[in-house]
Amino acid sequence: MDKNVRKLRSKDINPCIEESDGSQKCLDANNYDKNMCSAYFLRYKNCRKYWHNIMVNRRQDGVKPDMPTAEERQEILAAIGGKPY
């Protein structure tokens, strides 16, 4: 696998792999009719927005790494009672 593709598929780097895969599966199942998959696209967009805000806040607070690891993200989501998106 290409280095960039592996990076995007890394759970520590990309917090929205599940949402991305859902969008792609929906497109595949619906013959690439984007109108049928708008809920999946919205979920992915909200996921990216949520974790981007977390990353910005951590950067402002001087927390490294900017993006929480997969384990930290699970703890964050558990603390708020599940995915907010």
What is the strand content?
under 5%
Helix/strand class = mainly alpha
Can you give the helix content as a percent range?
55-70%
Mean of the pLDDT scores? 92
Oligomeric state of the chains in view:
single chain
The Rg value, from CA coordinates, equals 14 Å
What is the general shape? globular
Low confidence ranges: none
Total DSSP helices:
4
- How would you sum up the major sheet? none
What's the end-to-end separation, in Å? 30 Å
Order of helices and strands: HHHH
Q: What is the number of beta strands?
A: 0
Secondary-structure map:
Layout (H helix, E strand, L loop, with lengths): L2 H6 L8 H13 L8 H23 L9 H10 L6
In words, what does this structure look like?
The chain contains four helices and no strands. By secondary structure, the chain is mostly helical. The protein starts with a helix and ends in a 6-residue tail after the last helix. It is found in: Mitochondrion intermembrane space. InterPro entries: COX23, COX6B-like, Cys_alpha_HP_mot_SF. Keywords: Disulfide bond, Mitochondrion.
